[in-house]
Amino acid sequence: MIKDPKMLGGEPDPIDVHLGKKLRDFRTRLGWTLTNLAERAEVSHQQIHKYEGGQAKISASMLYNFSLIFSTTFNAFFEGYTPKKTDLNPSAQNDTISLKAREKINLLLVEDSSADEFLIRKILETCPYDFEIYCIHSGDEAIHYFKKYPGTTSFTKPDIVLLDLNLPKVNGFSVLRAIKQDRNIQDIPVLVLTNSLSKKDMVMAYKNFASGYISKSFDSNTFRRNLQTALTYWIDAVILPESSV
After folding, report:
1. Domain that residue 43 falls in
2. Domain named HTH cro/C1-type: which ranges (predicted)?
């Protein structure tokens, strides 16, 4: 068990204090007692008290559990938190991960089928995120698009790429390899969307560092659910790389 930082002669970590206040806010909003929340989280009410006081660190898995309990997002606990620059040396300031939720997600869709593009756009409209969507309809156009980065200021680096494999002229594997071989853009998560049921295609996608392989199921509801789940993971559960890095 993590001991009270004050007992060790130090002050609580500001991020632990912030998360504790957020946890208390969510709990009191629902009118729950410490015991009510403890029972749902399967910990002691004393542990909840320590969490809320910033006296114990909340693990990533426990924070995710709290987000499920309160029907909110992982990032909601970090809203309003900004590390104090006075506590950081210049090099540390440049190396600090931003915990703020993205106001806008730049999403590149590489898809040649107008029907699939329409379906994907409709699914994206149901997601609780503000997407800036740019669609490219062929593999060679996608490669040309990425070659412009970072040569022009008008180019916006995508936060996430949704990539179809069956593209005209240049297939999706070639686009994927081009992205992952370019040091300027290889950090972008690429989610492969495909009708292919080939194990060889799936293995090839992951060997070329795809961040996910999603089948365009014949059941549109299944496809919608799978795509929403993947996007929630990349936007809420993990921290996306920043364009300035």
Report:
1. 5-94
2. 23-77
